[in-house]
Amino acid sequence: MDDVRRVLKQFWGFDSFRPLQEQSIQTILEGRDSLTVLPTGAGKSICFQAPALCNGLHGNKGAGAGDLAVVVSPLISLMKDQVDALREKRVPAALINSTQDETEKREVAERIRRGELRLLYLAPERLLSPKTLGFLRQQRCVRYFAIDEAHCVSQWGHDFRPEYQQLKTLKQVFPEASVHAFTATASQPVRRDIACQLGLCEPSFLIGNFDRPNLTYRMIRAGQKMQQIMEVVNRHRGQSGIVYCLSRREVDTTTQALRTLGLKAKPYHAGLAAPQRKANQDSFMQGRCDIIVATIAFGMGIDKPDIRFVIHTGMPKSVEHYQQESGRAGRDGLDAECVLLHSPRDFLVWSDVMHGEAGQVARDSLQAMFELCNDVTCRHQAIVEYFGQDYGVMRCGACDVCLGELQLHDQSADIAQTIVACVQDLKHKYGAGYVARVLAGKSDKRIFQSNHDRLNRFGALGDHGPMAIKVWIQQLISQKYLCRSGSYKTLEPTESGRRLLRGQGTPKLTATGRSKKSADGSDCFVPAISSLAAFDYFRSGDSIESVAQKMSRAQSTVVKYLADYIRHHGINDPTPWVKPETAQRVLANKHLAGDGKMKPIFDHFNGEVSYDEIRITLACDG
Ligand code: ADP
Ligand code: MG
Fold it and tell me: Which of 510, 498, 342 is nearest to 417 (CA)?
């Protein structure tokens, strides 16, 4: 180990190891397979780079083991960055990839033959080509393999790459070499799967600390998204942030909307040409634009320390994804904010996407993500516990739950009692989905056949959809009023649940209505994304008809966009769109429009003035 310390000091200038680095390195020195799970930025690279430079490594393992470490990495850009950095430190490292010509490749092979090279970086498909395998085998030089971003091995993980799965061959072709996997995100089942897929032999598992105390998490029901996004952005004017969207289209519309609102935002997704994508990324990295609006294509290898906020406009499909993406905020250790806008619909969309093809672990991770969003327990605790770590803090003081920001339903106790009672009625034989449908009053076949439409509480929560009720059931489970049991995950009341039926206990259920009031009490008007998309047309003086045509929208819809445009810019002259005398007549009767309702005015004019004209005139009146 002293040898590694010397290496750490000599090549990197560091005096001490970070948590688990020493243990991880130890497994390599001992030649014992391992999986190291450390959050991004924790320093995984050194774990597999430093041992390659130790003298002690030479020949201390059986015949055939040489002094080369082979690093498998999924992205050429990641490899290149690492190799460049190593070369700067005078470490004999090289990479082989598809962008090199034959001479370059031959040169690398020559250095391996001469035993000069200590670290070789390869993409999995390159490593697994018969030619490369044959060459390395013949040279008998590989001491160990490091598999970086090892979650790519697991189909259950969040970034599966088929070419990673073939890596199992390594243990067979190089029985004398050890294999060491590294990743930032892997729940327990994914970890086991990685070890299994790579064929690791009695691996040592090293799991790091996943809490990020400087991040404040907020998980909010999606409403008027642009308004919700702007609330966050306004708290961080001029600072760096990422807005993650679920689709390319949403990236484009959101970027456009932010730009219309005067923000420096750029898009990033796989549908953009590579040079454009690179330019936008550079612009963000160098601080020329504040906000990058992106799909999950953005991020691997991004190491910008001063990202102050990460917003998700929809729910990611796994906690791993969420941890990774939100984790890009606050790398410098200073406070940063992570806001997730979610709706039960996101869950249904992902379930559809996964239908049939995804394994149980993927579905479990989706379910865990859904629970994370909808639970009324500390977000820090929930995330950390998901990654298999104990969370010792009582109140984190850095999430919407612990900060008391959740909007609770004012009839939480009544609703909770109804739900628990219904679970009783159903004699603990059904799961959450079924109970929710009974309470919502859905008379589907199964309910009908079981006569459950005759239960007292059938339809008792009929004002709410099954999805909303499912969310509440989840909240009652997390507060231990209900529990799931057996392999069918049927619901049962707990002891607290039974006490609740006797009127004891204070369950917390969230309000289903979308919150209108913002977290900081401000109530500024932000137009919807769809409206913002029309703003450029209005600005350049396009008529309502022409905008309707260009956007393929109904004229009445475009008039609504226009009303937003007028309000947003505080325009008070309606005459570009409405005849002056018509506008005057409307204004003279505006007192009829109580509560923003236009019908009384419309009726007053017996159809002589259109709804569109009324809407535009009133918008100008503020
Ligand atoms: P990961 O791959 O886990 O995301 P990296 O290997 O890219 O993290 O390392 C992140 C940063 O931490 C790098 O700048 C690296 O130089 C630094 N680092 C790693 N180990 C140490 C250490 N023992 N002391 C100080 N800095 C370190
Ligand atoms: Mg890394």
Answer: 498
Are 317 and 354 in contact by the 8 Å Cβ rule? The answer is yes
Ligand 1 is surrounded, with C-beta below 6 A, by 14, 17-18, 21, 38, 40-46
Q: Which residues contact 47 (CB under 8 A, 6 or more apart)?
A: 21, 24, 25, 28, 36, 146, 180, 182
- Strands 240-244, 307-312: pairing kind: parallel
User: CA of 227: how far to CAs of 93, 160, 230, in Å?
Assistant: 50, 35, 5
Residue from 4, 8, 10, 14 to probe ligand 1 pocket by mutation (most atoms less than 8 Å from CB): 14
User: 243: closest CA among 224, 282, 269, 273?
Assistant: 269
What three-state secondary structure class fits 511?
coil
Parts of the chain belonging to CATH 1.10.10.10: 412-501
pLDDT of 64 above 50: no
Name residue, tokens 């900081």.
520
Q: Return residue ranges of the chain for CATH 3.40.50.300.
A: 2-207, 215-386
Amino acid type, 244: Y
Quick one: fold of 412-501? Arc Repressor Mutant, subunit A (1.10.10)
CA distance 603 to 396: 56
CATH class entry, domain 215-386: alpha beta
Distance CA 459, CA 602 (A): 39
The phi, psi pair for 154, rounded to 5°, reads -95, 130
Q: Which ligand is nearest to the CA of 20?
A: 1
Rounded CA gap, 567 and 204, in Å?
62
CA distances from 430 to 78, 397, 422, 450, 477 (A): 49, 37, 10, 12, 14
Predicted TM-score (pTM) of the model is 0.75
pLDDT tens digits, 513-545? 655 444 454 556 788 888 888 898 998 899 999
Ligand nearest to the CA of 86: 1
d(CA 488, CA 507) in angstroms, rounded, equals: 25
For residue 21, report the distance from its CA to the centre of ligand 1, in Å.
10
Tell which CATH classification among 3.90.1150.10, 3.30.360.10, 3.40.50.300, 3.40.50.150 matches the domain 2-207: 3.40.50.300
**449-498 confidence digits (pLDDT tens):** 999 999 999 999 999 989 899 999 999 999 999 999 988 889 999 999 99
Q: For 367-409, what is each residue's pLDDT tens digit?
A: 999 999 999 989 999 999 888 777 877 778 899 999 999 989 9
Sequence-ordered list of residues with C-beta below 8 angstroms from that of 453, at least 6 positions apart, any chain: 441, 443, 447
Helix (H) or strand (E) holding 242: strand 240-244
CA distances from 17 to 71, 148, 234, 463, 565 (A): 21, 19, 39, 58, 56
